[in-house]
Specification:
alpha+beta, globular, 8-stranded mixed sheet, 6-stranded mixed sheet, 27% helix, 7 helices
Amino acid sequence: MKVKFLTGCRFLTAVLLVMALTGCSLIPGGKDKAPEPTTPTLSEVVEVSEDYYGSITPYKQNQTRGMLADTKYRVDFSHLELGLMEFARETYPTSDYYFQEGQVIKKEQVTQWIAQEKTAGANGKKKNGILVHVLEHDYLSKKDKSLAGMVLGLSLSPNYQDATGQDKVYTAQELQAKGQQVAVRIVQSVRATNPEVPILILMYQVPEVNSTLVPGHFIMSGTVGANEATISKWLPIEEEYFLFPSSEVEQKYPEQSLQYDKLMRQSKGYFPEYIGMTGLGRFMDGKLTEITITATAEYDSRTEALQFTQFAAGSINQLFDKSVHVNLYVQSMNKPLSIYIRPTSGEPYMHIYRQ
């Protein structure tokens, strides 16, 4: 089974749709055929399409797995993981590398790095450092399956306390500068045991502590060349997420806000039974690249869900530029009803849940 690489919820949606429409397995088979057709075997290498990373078996879990569950931050882990892979594709092409969860950095190391970032606060109290977590992804050479590249995602919090103990927030530039200092120390530690492997560093600003809708976002990248001990080529990443509708997106991106408002008015005017529509937009370099819309109905009529999805899809195609990837999820208060996906390339597709 071939799976196209998609970021964020797009990847999960694609997989679910393939399962629902074709009934295929989530585990793609290897290229090598078993000697006997009646005896299933699992290839040592799990191949997928050239757009997505293959992997090797047995599957190894990340050495820092579960650490984020102990933090107070609602880190959107799916966005973090898939975002790391999205940026990695530019450095480690899917045609030349296999993916493997991090096997070099241990939990104890991450715990130590986080502890080192805690400094004395007001009245002798400890305050939170900016480092929340470190996520490692490994990339193996397809030639000999050796470790040939690493990606390190540094989850950072902009919240801190000043000398008087008051809560403050670092600006984006301040967090980038302090993140670079943290990255230098982490790279030095990793280089002690892996002096030759190239490393891609990605800084990820975690969302607000009480945020349940808006995920964190990437703010900067840096690279460490093979056999190099220092980080070079620091580049800012302009990624933002906004809720639709909201005063924040209306103020910063009025055109996109008006487009969404028109979609809501058209949908509610034609289908008043739908009691709510919320959207989450992803902006890269000031441009809307993806929007995920959730429409909630009062009851689970499949025929109404079908008509609503078709109507909304028509409005989406009229209002949003083709360069914007659109995910539409239609649900009742209790269950999903339908999905409409319009990718930036290829044909859009729709699925109506039957149960």
